[in-house]
Amino acid sequence: MTIDAQQQETFTIGEVAERTGLSVHALRYYERQDLLVGPVQRTSGGRRIYTAVDIDWLQICVKLRESGMPLADLARFAALVRQGSGNEDERLKLLDEHRQHIEAQIHALEECRALIEWKVGVYSKHLRAGTATGLWDPGHGP
């Protein structure tokens, strides 16, 4: 399929929901919140029709939301993209700040994982040794 044919192919809201993992309700919400980079086209009967470009953008939105980007930041990013060229530095700043936030979350989760791994090791050691009864039980004396 050529790029022109791909861009001209249209999809129903149900097909877009299936391809993006968003519900039909979420797609309508994204549209109302101006999270899309272009207006959703409609058939003469008023039904929404989407393009491959819309799906690509929505898949980016899904990943940004899954990574914890607030809707306000996503809306700002979409607005910048809609404005066209000339604001790439603002887009980069927004994405870089989000990346830094994610890296801080990953670091915090790695610290949590290390503590849990240590705790699992302690419990495993005591269970193998038969000394786990009362382990960290505030009602059980030393």
Automatic annotation (TrEMBL):
CDD domains: HTH_YyaN. Residues 10-80 form the HTH merR-type domain. SUPFAM superfamilies: Putative DNA-binding domain. SMART domains: HTH_MERR (SM00422). Keywords: DNA-binding. It comes from the Bacteria. GO terms for molecular function: DNA binding; DNA-binding transcription factor activity. Signal peptide: none annotated. PANTHER family: HTH-TYPE TRANSCRIPTIONAL REGULATOR ADHR, REDOX-CYCLING DRUG-SENSING TRANSCRIPTIONAL ACTIVATOR SOXR. This is MerR family transcriptional regulator. It comes from Amycolatopsis antarctica.
